[in-house]
Amino acid sequence: MDKTDKIIVPGRVSLVVASYNHAGFLNRRMDSLIAQTYEDIEIVVIDDCSPDNSVDILRDYEDHPKVNLIIRKENGGWVTVSNQGIDVSTGEYVLFANCDDSCGPTMVERLVAAMQSSEKTGIAFCRSYMVDENDAVLGDDFTVRSADFRAYCAADVVIPKDQANRFLLHSCVIPNLSACLFRRQCFEDHGNLSAEYRVCCDWDLFFRIAQTYDISYVATALNNFRQHRKTIRSVTKDKVVYEEYFRLLLGQVNSLNLSARERMSARTHVMYLWAVHVLVPSRNSWVNIPYHLRCVLIYDPASIVFLIPGFLKRVLEIGCKATGKMLRILKREATQQ
């Protein structure tokens, strides 16, 4: 069937699982999707030539009425496979369920309700638990957000698009696609995931959608965001990661409708992020300086002016942490005497 002739089912949620080399997590992933309380779902699972036994595990789910299993003959990469999932799925809403994550049984139901609360909402996402390889909870993504985000999103809320862009400019406040429901119309209006990014393709998509759509937030942690050594971000070299940060964020600084003060603050923050990379005991961070400097000069030369305040902010932060640690040690020693 031609893509333009495909029938989209109103209210249906397409859960797209791009599977690659995470056999150890697949049972938890699939069982958590099948257990969803929201009835009208389809689970589109696409294995991208996994070298482990992922396909053997997925075959056990192949006959489930809600599962559509596709085995690729050529490796295409996560972005290509996820976009394929958009193209073959039939739901009004789409969620990219990363194959190493899992979720609570009411997550889809809650996200759909948040999406349907406003026609202007293009994305609905929820708070996530950070879990290790054995599902032990390490924390949650909300506590590490900025103070203004935590104040704004202390309860369920619709974030207007301009405010959403400001939050996104500070950090990727939607850190895990598995917690994020999209209105399919967003892809028609702003395109699919971009292969121009390896690490920031989701962040880039959020910015594009927030040009015209609001974002709904569910303050309850319903998703489990897996932390391990084989995530895309953890296996991508810092040289690539920070080039993408500069390209994306400095591009947004110049395209968003920001005040002069907001633009200054954003540039300082991007330079601060660079300082986080540089001021670590790693040879690679220093070796990357000439390359990243060229990137900044290409994407937004004006940001160089904010290099000193950005780095100074990081130095002061490191100093405050060191001072606090020393004071705690001295206090502990004093109580032991």
From TrEMBL:
Signal peptide: none
Keyword Transferase: yes
Membrane-spanning residues: none
Family matches, as PANTHER family: GLYCOSYLTRANSFERASE, UDP-GLCNAC:BETAGAL BETA-1,3-N-ACETYLGLUCOSAMINYLTRANSFERASE-LIKE PROTEIN 1
One Pfam family in the UniProt entry: Glycos_transf_2
Species name: Cohaesibacter gelatinilyticus
GO molecular function annotation: hexosyltransferase activity
UniProt cross-references to InterPro entries, sorted A to Z: Glyco_trans_2-like (IPR001173), Nucleotide-diphossugar_trans (IPR029044)
Origin organism lineage: Bacteria, Pseudomonadati, Pseudomonadota, Alphaproteobacteria, Hyphomicrobiales
Domain Glycosyltransferase 2-like span(s) in chain numbering: 14-133
Keyword annotations from UniProtKB, A to Z: Transferase
Protein name: Glycosyl transferase family 2
